[in-house]
Amino acid sequence: MEVREVRYQVKVNKAWCKACGICVEFCPKGVLALGQDGKVDVVNQTECTGCGLCELRCPDFALEVGGVENE
Questions:
Q1: Distance between CA atoms of 62 and 71, rounded to whole angstroms?
Q2: Residue 68, Cβ neighbours under 10 Å: how many?
Q3: 48-71, pLDDT tens digit by residue?
Q4: What burial class does residue 30 get, using C-beta atoms within 10 Å of its C-beta: 0-12 exposed, 13-18 middle, 19+ buried?
Q5: Do the Cβ atoms of 14 and 35 come closer than 8 Å?
Q6: Are 33 and 8 in contact (CB under 8 A)?
Q7: Whether pLDDT at 36 is above 80
Q8: Domains and CATH numbers, the chain
Q9: Secondary structure (3-state) at 15
Q10: What separation in angstroms does the CA of 68 have from each of 4, 42, 64?
């Protein structure tokens, strides 16, 4: 059985983000931060563990966490 490395990607829908910062506070790895526009930015993508806390806590469904397979 072949084992593949999986990393995670966070996608932000800036049109839906209301800049509340809840996702930033719940991210245990510091993947997210509020940008100069006040909305969330992905600043440390490689540290994402795919826990989904940001996606779960976002009241506006502006975040999506997904796995990306590397071959």
A1: 29
A2: 12
A3: 999 999 999 999 999 999 988 665
A4: exposed
A5: no
A6: no
A7: yes
A8: 14-63 (3.30.70.20)
A9: coil
A10: 10, 16, 13
Distance CA 25, CA 23 (A): 5
Pair 29, 47: CB distance under 8 Å: yes
Amino acid in the structure at residue 17: C
Which of 47, 63, 43 lies closest to 55, judged by CA? Answer: 63
Residue 29 phi/psi, 5° resolution? -110, 5
**Is 0.70 surpassed by the pTM of this model?**
yes
**Tokens 């006040």 found at:** 38
E-only strand ranges, 1-71: 5-12, 32-34, 40-42, 63-70
Direct distance between the N- and C-terminal alpha carbons of the chain, in angstroms, rounded to an integer: 14
- Given a contact cutoff of 8 angstroms between Cβ atoms, the answer to whether 50 and 65 are in contact is yes
